[in-house]
Amino acid sequence: MKIAVVLHLYYIDLWDEFCNGLKKFNGIEFDLYVSLTIGSTSSHELDLIRTQISKEFPRTQFYILENKGLDVGSFLIILKSMIQNEKEYDYILKLHSKKSVKSCGPIRGDSWRKQLCEPLFHNIENILTFFSRNNNVGMIGSKAHLYNIEGTNAILICQLKDLLGITTEQKAFIGGTMFWIKYSILTHYLTVERIQKIYDLLEEGYFIDLHQGKFTHAMERVFGYMVLDNNHLIAGA
Question: What is the pTM of this model?
Answer without folding.
Answer: 0.94
